[in-house]
User: Fold this.
Amino acid sequence: MNSTKLIVWDVEHGSAAYIQSPNGKHIVIDAGSGSFKNGRTFSPLYHLYNRYGVQSIDYAIITHPHKDHIDDIRNLIALSPSVLWRPKHLTREDIIPTHVSEDDRQLFEEYIAFCNEYNETVTEQNSPLNPENYGGLLIKRFSTKSCSKSNLNNQSPVFIFEYASIKIVVTGDNESANYRALFDENPSFRGSISNADVLIAAHHGRESGYDNDFVSTVNPRLTIISDSSKKDTSASSYYSQKSRGLTVHTKNGDVERKTLSTYKDGCINVEFGKGILNSNYLSVKI
Assistant:
């Protein structure tokens, strides 16, 4: 296997993505789930287990503990991640909203108990940040603690996944305050995100998650937005203006697109790696 696979799941107004590394390691980013008009609840994690036979997760990332990012936490717990990243500095008081239903309070409590099981230092032999452990997939993470904890969106990290010279940038629900801090605190941040191939837009494509300097630096070929019929993607036109364009494979043929959304396009499948004669390729299907 010489490719990395990325799936951005359609979980309505939530967040859930899956990455399979070139050597078959399983990575999940956020644990959102979707409730659809026919009464069916879609769990990407259960789908991975039931349809693809994924028995465990090697690396789980919870960008921040808002409900739409942890709604499927019980299925994540069942898949026993080997390594977990989350904003570890957040306290119980930071995480659980003041006014919350009993069902949601239980969800947050389970999330906190789950996180508390991951307090040991990750060894170099098990670290996702060591490309040798993930088949050459380079994973970079940038985060800051300088933003106010009153807005959990800005506790999200920025992750960069790179393989075969193809770069994917994942943003959580970050807003401009986080990007400003990362630019100021990390001299290598700008170069690490620059000229990426795919950007997964922050905060479901809302204008509050759009930062012109950040998106201009990323300079993506394609922007992917995880959204719902609420149509909160008020910054879609901005992303279109800043995205260079990429050929996307559809059931009706190939089309040039600058943005894709889970609401309009369903689950989005990305594959990138080394093809014939060791040439690099990037394929996007909807």
